[in-house]
Design brief:
There is one protein chain. By secondary structure, the protein is α/β, with parallel strands linked by helices. 22% of the residues lie in helices and 27% in strands. The protein has 11 helices and 21 strands. The strands form 5 sheets. Strands 12-17-19-7-6-20-11-14-13 form a 9-stranded mixed beta sheet. A 6-stranded parallel beta sheet has the order 2-1-3-4-5-8, with helices on both faces. Helix 2 crosses helix 3.
Amino acid sequence: MTTLVFVHGWSVTDTSTYGTLPAQLQQQSAHQGLNLRLVDICLSQYVSFDDAVTMADLVRAFDHALADLQLGDEGFACITHSTGGPLVRQWLRARRGQPTTYRALRLTHLVMLAPANFGSALAQLGKGALGKLKAWWNGIEPGQRILDWLELGSAESLALNLDHIHGDDPAEQDHYQFVLTGDRPDRTFYDHINSYTGETGSDGVVRMASANLNARHAVLTHAGTVAGIDTLQMNVTRAPRTAFRLISGASHSGAAHGIMAHGATETIDCILRCLAVRDTAGYRLLCQAFDRDNALRDRDRVELETVGPFEPRVHIHDPRSQLIMRLTDETGEVLADSRVLLRAGLPPNPDWMPQGFMLDRQANRRAKHVISLFLNHSLLAGSERIADPRQGRRTLRAAMASHSPYSLCVQPAILNGLVHHTIASSHQDDDLLDVLGPHETTVLDIVMPRKVREGVFRLTRDLSPQDFSHPEPGKDIV
């Protein structure tokens, strides 16, 4: 017998959001030997649409609600959708950091459906006029504090994910995490005012790279100065491996194509495969099996969208990468007005970057120095010819070679003054492509050296009055 807790996403106001998924899991689980009974399935009803509620509030309330289940030593499993994924992960982190405050309950399996682990590009829209209008129409608030968490590059989401990247492997502690996410938007839900709802590389709400926990943290720090230009060298940490599976043809939500309703066959099969894992070896094997499934999906990447009486609209589902950049100096001061140029080839040239590689750029509203870039990984890595599925000899896109190595150059806003920064470039031996993975997110911290000149503080033996309102800058302090 397994206790199974379902946790929904942001702005949900009715448990009908789970559809028939719980009942179908109950019916089909017998084939996997899990023997789930309806009394063992719990549906969450948490409030995310109140502007006063924070993620920390939800974590506390979730912990309190679990007490009602009277769970034994066997623990429980959890299936989440969208914001529910990071919510439960925040609970796990809080429980680890404050063991005397939160209950020592054993969560064996965390199966996340379309989780907004690194946030959603739509979160900014939710806080805008359209989101507020929709919330007003439905008689609810937009859930401002939860949307702040969900913004790409928010301090809260990055803290959670960096803790995961640098933390221990959950699978080694008999806790197994899984990410299942749709691979395309539901075109019938496309909002012509907001193109994010039809963004290729997402399920219409959450990017595949944002869902995936197989992430990296790269840090560029000062390695030397040559001819007045600072060199930044890269150090990279990769997260513990997490099982990740793309659900073909599924979108974020909706009765027809939503991941909790989409044919349900593939989603349910994958969930049951996840719940059947009993040890670390079995978890590793499932990770490998999911990787093979994803590789097959990525080879069949052409979608033909019906457009009334006209020619079908072509969508090429290239694997995408998400790069979240934070630019500070070595004292932690943010450098919001600096420019970061991506460059290709040798010698490095920004004009040699592949055409169409940059798909989106979004700055976090509360932290302007945090920029999220959405990149076409296939164009950066090189792509084979894409044939037209309707006529194999016809080419939709010709083969493209990679333009690597890729580097970056930072151009600070203040190059002179008592306190300033100088132009900096990544080290010639570091290729940015090496830290970008298909369907993955990389957090890139660029840490610039801070230059302080001698004129900031001087001592004099001359006791006569002296005006130093216009100090001579002098040399940089070494």
